[in-house]
């Protein structure tokens, strides 16, 4: 029985590390749920979750030139309106969120046209989220889905699909 368990654990570990077993909707650490290679034009957004706000740190865009991946810093994606972050993306654009918390457990939740998405964020461990932006322009709200204190209800922001 121990040999069978060891075989299943080894197989599971190998497929998770290679990214073959995880769907793109999971927020597994180590980036194992990300497609390999990332699509051209993918926006990578580094998001810090603190009590009680989401703070986008920076954003880069992945561009392939002659088959070589380049991360180009983009400055016009992240804005703030009334103190809440607005992240500007284009319809059907691939997006990678690198989610990080330095204090308590948070959950990055958003409702997209193809269904709700939720990624748990454990302090000190990067979580990776990959999704395609909605095809229809508009504002899509993201918020914290794990109660993290008295200001929890104010912990939200927007994806502005334009």
Strand tally, please? 11
Physical arrangement of strands within the biggest beta sheet:
4-5-11-10-7-8
What is the SS-derived class? mainly beta
Number of helical elements: 1
The major pleated sheet works out as: 6 strands, mixed
Can you tell me the overall shape?
Answer: globular
Number of structural units classed as domains: 2
Computed CA radius of gyration, to the nearest angstrom:
17 Å
Q: What is the CATH domain class of the largest domain? A: Mainly Beta
How much of the sequence lies in strands comes to: over 45%
Spans of 5+ residues with little confidence (pLDDT < 50)? 21-25
CATH homolog superfamily of the largest domain: Cupredoxins -  blue copper proteins
- Just name the CATH architecture of the largest domain: Sandwich
SSE order in H/E notation?
HEEEEEEEEEEE
What does this molecule look like?
This protein is mainly beta and 162 residues long. It has two domains: 1-31, no CATH class; 34-161, Cupredoxins -  blue copper proteins (Immunoglobulin-like, Sandwich), CATH 2.60.40. It contains one helix and eleven strands; from the N terminus they run H-E-E-E-E-E-E-E-E-E-E-E. A six-stranded mixed sheet has the order 4-5-11-10-7-8, with no helix packed on it. Strand 2 (53-65) and strand 3 form a beta hairpin. The protein is globular, with a radius of gyration of 17 Å. Keywords: Copper, Metal-binding. One of its GO terms (cellular component) is membrane.
Helix and strand arrangement:
Elements: H1 2-18, E1 43-50, E2 53-65, E3 68-73, E4 78-81, E5 84-89, E6 94-101, E7 106-112, E8 115-121, E9 127-132, E10 138-144, E11 156-161
Parallel strand pairs: 1-6, 5-11
Antiparallel strand pairs: 1-2, 2-3, 4-5, 6-9, 7-8, 7-10, 10-11
InterPro entries: CcO_II-like_C, Copper_CuA, Cupredoxin, Cytochrome_c_oxidase_su2-like
Domain Cytochrome oxidase subunit II copper A binding: 40-162
GO cellular component, one term: membrane
């Amino acid at each position: 029985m121990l040999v069978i368990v060891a075989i299943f654990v080894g197989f599971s570990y190998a497929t998770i590390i290679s990214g073959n077993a995880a769907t793109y909707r999971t927020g597994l650490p180590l980036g194992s749920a990300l497609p390999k290679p990332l699509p051209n034009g993918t926006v990578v957004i580094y998001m810090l979750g603190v009590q009680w706000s989401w703070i986008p740190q920076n954003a880069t865009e992945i561009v392939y030139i002659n088959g070589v991946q380049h991360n180009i810093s983009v400055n016009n994606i992240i804005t703030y309106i009334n103190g809440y972050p607005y992240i500007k993306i284009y319809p059907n654009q691939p997006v990678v969120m690198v989610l990080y918390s330095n204090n308590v457990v948070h959950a990055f939740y958003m409702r997209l046209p193809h269904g709700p998405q939720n990624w748990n964020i454990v302090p000190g461990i990067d979580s990776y989220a990959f999704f395609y932006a909605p095809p229809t322009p508009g504002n899509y709200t993201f918020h914290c889905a794990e109660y993290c204190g008295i200001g929890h209800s104010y912990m939200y922001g927007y994806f502005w699909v334009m």
